[in-house]
Amino acid sequence: MTAQGRRDTQQDAPRRKDDVKREQRSGVPVRRPGVQSGYDLWASSYDTTANPTVYLDRLHTLRALDAQPGEKVLDAGCGTGAHVVALRRQGVASVGVDFSRGMLGVAKQVDASVPLLVGDLHRPLPFADAVFDAVVCSLVSEHLEQLHVFFAEARRVLVSGGRFVFTAFHPELVGAGVEANFTRDAVEYRLGAEPHGVDDFMREMQLAGFGGIQVENVVGDEALVEALPAAKKYLGKSCLVLLTAKAP
Ligand SMILES: C[S@@+](CC[C@H](N)C(=O)[O-])C[C@H]1O[C@@H](n2cnc3c(N)ncnc32)[C@H](O)[C@@H]1O
Known about the structure:
The structure is a single chain. By secondary structure, this protein is an alpha/beta fold. It has one domain (17-246): Rossmann fold (3-Layer(aba) Sandwich). 38% of the residues lie in helices and 25% in strands. It contains ten helices and ten strands. The protein has a seven-stranded mixed sheet with strand order 4-3-2-5-6-10-9, with helices on both faces. A hairpin with a 2-residue loop joins strand 7 (181-184) and strand 8. It is globular. The structure holds S-adenosylmethionine. The site of S-adenosylmethionine has 20 residues, from helix 3 and helix 4.
C-alpha cells in the first residue's frame, strides 16, 4: 500500500466495535481522524497532555543517545520538538522531520532556529547517505506500518558506527488495547497502534543491517505515579521499550 493510500484508509477509518463500547461506557464519543490529521489536531495540547510513556521517554532517551556537541543528529518523528530542541541547546546540530505540520508548527514556536522538515517516515528521507552521527526516533513506532522502510532509511543516513536510538510505546500496552489518544471538547480522539512486538523491532533492525542491538524495558514505578498520579494503573507494568543499535 502506498503512503497516500495508507493515510486515506486511516482518515476514513470506520467506527470499531470497541469504540462503540467505550462510548457506551463513558458517554464520550470516539473519533479516528487518522495519524497525520490526528497529530495536527493534537499539536496545540500535546505538550500539556499527561502521558506516562512521554514522561518516561524524557527520562531515558537523551541519556541513551549521549549526543556530543557538534554531532549531527536526526530526530525522526520529532513532533513538537522536545528532543530536537533540547539537543540544539546542548550544541548538537540536530534536525527534525515529521509529517504533521501542526506538530512542527509548535516546535517552530518553541525554537525557530531548529531546522525542521516535513517528511514521511514510510518514504525515503530527504537526506543524503551517511550524514548523521545518530538518529533518534521516540514514540513513533506505533504508527509505523512499515518498520523495514524506516529502519533501512535510518541506517542509510547514518555514518558507519552511527547510533540509532528507538523508543516505543510498549507492545504490552498495545496488546492490552491502549493506543495514542487525547480528549478535546468532550471527544476522545484515537490514533491507532500497530501491533509490533519487541522481537519485530529487533528482527527488522537486524535485517536493515544494524548491529549491537540492546533492549531496555522501562516499567512504571513510584516516581512515575508521583509525577503523574493518573498513571497509577501503570505501576509495575512495562510502559516503554528503548532499543539502541549501531550502523555497520
Ligand atoms: C507520539 S508523537 C512523538 C513525537 C516526539 N518524537 C516525542 O517524543 O514527543 C508521534 C509523532 O510521530 C509522527 N509520525 C507518525 N507517523 C509518521 C510518519 N509516517 N512520518 C513522519 N512522522 C510521523 C506524528 O506526526 C507525531 O508527531
